[in-house]
Amino acid sequence: MFAGIDVGASATKCMIIDEGKNELSSAVKRTGMSLRKVADEVYKEALSGAGLELDGIKVVATGFGRKNVDFADSIRTEISCHCKGCYHHFPRALTIVDIGGQDTKLIRTNVEGKIIDFKMNRKCAAGTGAFLEEIARRMDVPLEEMNGIALSSEREIEIGSYCTVFTATEILSKIREGEKQEDIVRGVFGSVIKRIQEMNPLIGDVVLTGGVVAHNEILFDLLEEALGREVLKPPKPQFTGAFGAALYAMM
Amino acid sequence: MEVLVAFGFKVYFPENHSALIGARKIADDYIPVANAVGYSPEICSYLTSDIGAYLRNETPLKDAYGVSSIPKPDVLAVNTNQCRDLYEWFSFFGRRFDAPVFSIHPPKYLDEVEEHHVDDVAVQYEDMIAQLEKITGERLDEAKLKEAVALSLEATELWKGFLDTAVHVPSPLTFFDGTIHMAPIVVMRGLQVAVDYYKQLKAEMDERLENGIAAVDDERFRIYWEGMPVWGRLRKLSEQFVDLRTCLVASTYCNSWVFDDMTPDDPIRSMALAYTKVFVNRSEPAKERYILDEIKRFKADGIIFHDARTCPANSNASYGMPARMMEDHGIPTLTLDGDLNDLRCWSDEQATTNIEAFIEQLEER
Ligand code: SF4
Fold first, then answer.
1. Residues B180-226: tens digit of each pLDDT
2. Shortest alpha-carbon distance between residue A114 and chain B (Å)
């Protein structure tokens, strides 16, 4: 058995797989302040979900807290793990977009699943999960409801600023102009898509992954609309990194 | 530099002072001071660190050498072959100390340096010399100028010899060693002391080569560093690369301080040529050719571009070069956002993960 633990900035995920690369169980928790502890908790939860004991399992840790998982056999960056996870589901040349809590990553692979290049977003949170959280707070909407609200919008409005603070001001002016809440929220998701398109050309088959897209399906619609073609969705987008780490554990 | 030495001036370099401030990790105490008086956080953080420190009446020279403040200049001399910021920076001190600022403005973005470019710069040198003669009340001693140029040439050749030992696999030195040992070639050109320094250093490297001593144990990857150092993170980065068994074998920053066009027989024209030909003053295609040659020469597996927020002059990631290196030449590249001195523009977390992932990428190739 093999386990991957992805200690992300907002959530910590664990997935356990068998020799045939099939998922046996998975678990997720908010990361919080104690990285070691949360890694331990998701791991134990996943173990019991799979009805397994601690012994004989190879563990690879990834994500920003990867170095805090002292019981892991080895570590691997989330860039390699997302790549590995996505390539397993879609074995061809890919452009992988991972929208995470603190950063967004864009990874291009060749047909063999090897990384050609990758980029992380620049310093500002714009285009990341943290950006959506901040805007939800500003607009006084629960984060979980953002997706549903945006889906009810029938009109597209432009939110163009490059930085989180400017976007917040831009939203205030939209509110003042009397724009509808659902249209603004949709515009906010639209701005996430724009930030992604600025990072690198999205060529070939595009996969969208990460916790943020798992909870906000509208991002798939908006990206497909922007690209004019289908966007691939892995079975469990939030767990692609953990799955990739488990695949590394197998190697 | 050589002209000032020939006139017998003691030369002080604000750039070096700023690098010291950066390496001491105190730049972020001073940059905001300069920002507050109107020097934007987006311009050269060497400038803002140095001016900020001056305005606060502080200097790391105090701890290091017991010097309580930067020296009061009689003249300021600047060559804008690097950037405008340097000129603005020197002008600040010119106003403060009521001292004249002499500047050489070579033609910029040159693909090839041609005779008429050299003519232009040589005339500017002669002009500057005439003004210095007025101020000092002395004629320029040709023999002294020739001697200074000869010493610069000798130092430059030794410096190149030192850096070139890194073509060996494994390399006996890293980019980080280069940044530590480059001070003399920057601030002591034209002086015997620089020659002596590099003779000793070069001998040490040759000895390392003979005994097969590598800078990074068990060197697996060799990387070319494009851009300035992150002065406040030299140790952290060098340790990370050692852990990854990766050697930064060469860099534009250290390797372009080679002025081998100087000839004591024709000091002014050869200085004009050497200082106009510098990498940072050249066209994008000329820079690309230089980097490609260096990558080949040093057998590098990839390039890391440091995109320094406040020094576009020494950052080459902004006009599509990383993409061209990758797509046209198949060279793996990584771009790190950062800065030379302003650590507010640097994220340890992002940099560490980016570097680690880049090495994983090379491992799986
Ligand atoms: S080249 Fe860069 S670091 Fe040097 S003075 Fe100009 S802006 Fe500053």
1. 999 999 999 999 999 999 999 999 999 999 999 999 999 999 999 99
2. 7
Q: Cβ contacts (< 8 Å) between A103 and chain B: which residues? A: 350
Neighbours of A56 (CB within 10 A): 7
DSSP character at residue A11: E
For B266, the 3-state DSSP assignment is: coil
ipTM of the complex: 0.91
Residue A48 to residue A43: CA distance in whole angstroms? 9
Q: Measured between alpha carbons, how far is A11 from A136 in angstroms, rounded to an integer?
A: 18
pTM for the whole structure: 0.94
Task: Give the whole-angstrom CA distance, residue A33 versus residue A74.
Answer: 22
CA nearest neighbour of A210 among A192, A191, A224? A192
Strand order, beta sheet including B333-338? B246-251, B221-226, B302-308, B333-338
User: What burial class does residue B66 get, using C-beta atoms within 10 Å of its C-beta: 0-12 exposed, 13-18 middle, 19+ buried?
Assistant: exposed
User: Rounded to a whole number, what is the distance in Å from the CA of B351 to chain A's nearest CA?
Assistant: 10
Of B34, B364, B29, B86, the closest CA to residue B221 belongs to: B364
User: Prior bond to B172 cis, omega within 30?
Assistant: no
Residue B61 in 3-state DSSP?
A: helix
Task: Pick the residue from chain B with its C-alpha nearest to A110.
Answer: B365
Amino acid letter, residue B60: P
* Site residues for ligand 1, CB cut-off 6 Å: B 44, 46-47, 82-83, 85-86, 311, 313-314, 340
